Amino acid sequence: MDGHGSLVWKMLTQKCNNFFLSGSTSEVCVKFFVDKYFVGLIHPEFCGTLLQHPEVFVEGLDPSSEKPCVRLNPNLTNFAERTAAVENVMRNLRDCPSFPSLRGWRNEHYGVFVNGRTEALLSVERAASRVLGVNRHNVHITGYTFLNGAMSSAERQTGLSDVLDMNLEEEEEENEPELKLSNVPRNLRLWIAKRSLSRPKHPGLLDNLAAGGLTYGLTVMECAKKESMEEAGIPEDLLSSLRPGGCVR
Predict the structure, then answer these.
(1) Claim to verify: residue 115 and residue 144 sit in the same structural domain
(2) Are strands 109-114 and 68-72 parallel, antiparallel or unpaired?
(3) Among 51, 60, 106, 227, which one is most buried in terms of CB atoms within 10 A?
């Protein structure tokens, strides 16, 4: 997504992504390092328990601030060793009251990447990624249609982001610019999903068409198709029109 549209999404994301703003828990979290890489932020309430497993987690110093940090034991030197060692500790902590997120164990792994997602240092159970505060990547699918089928074949190929003309207009008297979408086709409609009442998180609330964490070993498009079929029941033949719309960091 280019131009004004990118600015719109950037501003909306900054409003929601407030973890690093003053007063948030990021100020008390402890950095987590694997080898020379800073890969996560761990809440202090977890550190003591993790450091009781020195074969996996050891205390160190953050080279940029000389403050205490948590490091993966340097004797774990490759992807397989790191993944297995962390998995073993997290499984042992599943019943620990101090680690409620581990009760949501999914048997699904997320990759811990560095160098622009070109190198995976290890993979961790989805529930454990919250404990270690590592970056997680998710795929969201937006479904849309036009009433009366008023959409050209070219528009179907390029996708919604190129159909919409997004403008960013600043008001001089306001501290923040006003966000407006112009030239949105009046016959544009979005498919909105309603979460199952049996879901443990946000049951019965509205949601986008489908979404899911990016499982280690899957490409973004593979994950998008998997989630679309699993969550929205979209048949595989209809997913040929699936197009990437952009990335929000």
Answers:
(1) no
(2) unpaired
(3) 227
- 81/96 same-domain check: yes
Q: Which of 92, 80, 107 is nearest to 213 (CA)?
A: 107
Phi, psi angle pair for 220, to nearest 5°:
-60, -45
Is residue 161 in a domain? Answer: no
Average pLDDT over residues 155-182: 49
Q: Measured in Å, how far apart are the chain's first and last C-alpha atoms?
A: 13
- The C-alpha R_g of the chain, in whole angstroms, comes to 22
- Name the DSSP letter for residue 169: E
pLDDT at 178 over 50: no
How far apart CA 106 and CA 126 sit, in angstroms, is 7
Phi, psi of 90 (to 5 degrees): -65, -35
Partners of 191 in the β-ladder: 143
H helical segments located in the chain: 3-16, 44-50, 79-92, 126-132, 153-158, 160-163, 220-232
Structural domain range at position 64: 14-136
pLDDT of residue 59: 97
Burial of 121 (0-12, 13-18, 19+ CB in 10 A): buried
Same domain, 32 and 143: no
DSSP state of 177: P
pLDDT of 15 higher than 90:
no
Clarify whether residues 26 and 93 are in a common domain: yes
Work out the mean pLDDT of the chain and round it to a whole number: 84
